[in-house]
Every structure is written in structure tokens, then in C-alpha cells.
Amino acid sequence: MKRNNLMHAKLFAIIAACLFGATTPFSKLLLSQIHPLVLVGLFGLGSGAVMLIIRLLQVGLFHTERIKVELSKYYWLWLFGAMLTGGILAPVVLVYSLPRTSAATASILLNFESVSTTLFAAYLFKEKIGPRIWLAIILITVASILLSVDWSSSWGISLSALGVLLSTVFWGLDNNFTRNISMKDPYSIVIVRGLVSGSSVLCFSIILGMPFPSSIYLVAAIMWGGLVYGIGLVLFILAIRDLGASRASALLGTAPFLGALFSFFVFWELPAMQFVIALPFMVAGAYILLKEKHIAL
């Protein structure tokens, strides 16, 4: 492998991690002005629209290879599953949970996505899980339980934290569905997924009579969706080609911790004692997963 290709791939993965890490605090800011369902739709529509424009410019100006989409029924089956779980269900559950969860806690809880991804890979796709992976799963699960406890609630648990965890379960399914799709052209996957999921959620929002934001917030949401869920996702897929799934995932695995760091600076939230206690468990579990060579994407 050429050294330049390796350096570019690492850079792509790091940029993607920074973008995904900043999403939680930025989404929390936008939720003060945009209805959660509308925000999800704008993110999805933005990702598909921005990548479509970029791809058309590539084809028109630089005469790059035209978009190729595999038309087999299995391709569309996996793509539909990814759109439903990762493009609609996961972000909808997350944005409804964020207003009642601190941005830092939500960012760290998103680490549970690696657990759900690995468990689905093991039980649905028969991937082997070694003892180190099981240890990491236990550590991250313990941290997630600690972060979800809420003694002021009648149930003794934070429903909003459970909502964040549920979103990671949907994204775990999404990761396993997406890996079964041909990666020859990541643009087509992101374009179709974004346009279909985004327009579907927005149509549903209109039917329910959800209010739309002012133009400045509408444009901000669309552009952020294009930046993170469009460009960020394509960069991550391109990084996988040269780094491999596990090494690219290791770099992307820093996203939740970057999100927590961004949250402290954006909201100036002092971490609660639960956060301080849970963080070492989460860091240890994430470190083990990121060092493991056979992390399932």
C-alpha cells in the first residue's frame, strides 16, 4: 500500500470522527429551534442532496466514473434495512431523547453502538466473539447502566438515557446491514439513503403538522446533514478501503469522546458524579474494542 494512500485514509477517518463527534452537541443546539422529527428529515435530506450535487459536479466537471448501483434484490433489501434503522429509527429516537439528556452523557452513551454492532454481528451473521470482546461488552454495558440510573425517576432509571441506548441498537443493525452492500460507490449508497429517509420523515412531519424552522436554521440543519451524514459517511467508507474495517473503526471510535469534549466547551456542563464513575469503564471497554483486530463493522 502506498504511504500517501495510508495517510489519506487515516486523515479521512479522523475527519469523520470529528464530524460525528460534534453532531450530538450541535443537534442539541438545533433542537431548541427545530422540531425533532423535522430535524431528522433535514439531516437526511441534506446528506443525500449535498452528496448528489458533489457527485454530479464530479461527473460533469471532472468526468469521473458515473454512479453505479447494484440492482439485485439483496442490495435493495440491505439498503432498505439500513435506511429504516440508521436513517429513520435511530436518529428519531436520539433527537427525542437529547433534550432531556446532557450532551456529554449522550455522547458517551453512544459508545454502546459498538456493543450492539458486535452482538448483532455475532448472533445474526455468526461472527466469532473472543473473551476480550466479551470483557469490553461487559465494561461498556456497566458504564451504560451507571449513566442510565436516575433515582429521581419513579422507575429509578432515565428514560431519555434508555432512548439514547435504543438509538445505538438501531445503528448497530444499520452497521451490519450496510456492510452487506457493495462499497464500489459509497456516493450512491449515501445519496439514496439520505434522499429517501429524509424525504420520508419530512413528509410524515408535514402530515402531522409539525412546524418548520426559520430559513437560517433550516439551511443550517441541511448543511450539517450534508457535512456529517453525507461527506463524513463517505470519508469513513473510503477510509475502510485502505485501512480495513477494524483500523478505520478504531479511529472513528474516538467520536463519542470527542462529542463529550465538545459538549463541555459548548454547554459548559460540569460532569455529574455518575459520569465520572462511568467514564473509566467506558474508556476501558472502548480501548479493548478498538485494539481488537476483528471488530465487526
Give a verbal description of the structure:
The protein has 297 residues and is an all-alpha fold. It has one domain. The chain contains 12 helices and no strands. Helix 8 (186-207) packs antiparallel against helix 9 (215-243). The two termini are 22 Å apart. The relative contact order is 0.23.
Number of strands: 0
Overall pLDDT: 82
Return residue spans where pLDDT drops below 50 for at least 5 consecutive residues.
293-297
Q: Give the ordered list of helices and strands.
A: HHHHHHHHHHHH
Main beta-sheet strand count, sense and barrel state: none
What form results from the Cα inertia axes?
globular
Provide the β-strand percentage band: under 5%
Helix content: over 70%
Count of DSSP H/I helices: 12
When the domains are counted, the total is 1
Structural class by SSE content? mainly alpha
Q: Helices and strands in order, then pairings?
A:
Layout: H1 3-30, H2 36-62, H3 73-97, H4 103-109, H5 112-125, H6 131-148, H7 159-178, H8 186-207, H9 215-243, H10 245-252, H11 255-267, H12 273-291
Summarize the model shown.
This protein is mainly α and 297 residues long. It has helices spanning 3-30, 36-62, 73-97, 103-109, 112-125, 131-148, 159-178, 186-207, 215-243, 245-252, 255-267, 273-291.
